[in-house]
Design goal:
globular; 16 strands; four-stranded antiparallel β-sheet; 3 helices; 224 residues; alpha+beta; disordered N terminus
């Protein structure tokens, strides 16, 4: 089918397409880009290609978390980190910055167990157990916001350039904002430069993203 071929082509070219358009695209985590446990979709870093979510990246490359009210809670966690040869990456660091650029958390290595580590698809789709109603989810790393605006999370790891094991795929990921009532709030995570991968061009991408235009209109892009 033409649609199936398009979805496969899109999956292989996904990170290129969304680096070329200057609009806000929202997602929260694995739940949006992997509708089922057998779906294909992972957050990816590839510093030899772009500076998406990289340490000290420019404003247009940031992975943003919007805070509307002081006291809201940023909850986040990540699964295994995998390079483009299928091996594990053990030295991925993160830091969380406030809207004014000062550091709120980190830099420190992402955990491989305990708080901030997502071990299963079910945990990733339930979300942070720190928030009300998310029984069975993962235990998140958290930060209570002290200012409003766009916080942003950055990553770094050792790599030796194009053609090496320069890609980092997160098996699972979740970034969620909790309100003052400790309830999950959707639609707060966005970027102009998302990088996702479906693994290879034969895998269909069936997730969903939400486009936020300058006029305030939100459009859902559903690839299922």
């Amino acid at each position: 089918m033409i649609l199936t071929s398009f979805k496969k082509l899109f999956a292989s070219q996904f990170l290129i397409v969304f680096l070329l358009i200057s609009i806000k695209l929202s997602a929260e985590g694995t739940k949006q880009i992997m509708p089922t446990a057998s779906s294909h979709g992972e957050l990816q870093l590839m510093p030899s290609f772009s500076n998406f979510a990289w340490f000290d990246c420019g404003e247009d490359d940031r992975l943003n978390i919007h805070i509307k009210t002081v006291g809201e809670k940023i909850c986040f966690g990540f699964g295994d980190r995998i390079n483009n040869n299928g091996g594990s990456i053990s030295d991925v660091q993160y830091r969380l910055r406030k809207p004014d650029g000062t550091i709120a958390m980190g830099p420190v290595n992402l955990p491989t167990s305990g708080a901030g580590y997502i071990s299963t698809y079910i945990q990733a789709t339930i979300g942070p157990s720190n928030l009300s109603g998310n029984t069975g989810g993962y235990t998140a790393l958290t930060h209570t916001a002290t200012m409003t605006g766009d916080y942003y999370i950055e990553f770094s790891y050792n790599y030796s350039g194009w053609g090496s094991s320069d890609r980092c795929r997160f098996k699972y990921f979740d970034i969620t904002v909790g309100n003052l009532a400790n309830q999950e709030v959707d639609g707060r995570v966005w970027s102009k430069a998302w990088q996702f991968t479906s693994g290879n061009q034969d895998n269909e991408f069936t997730g969903s993203l939400f486009v936020y235009a300058d006029d305030g209109i939100v459009t859902k892009i559903d690839f299922s």
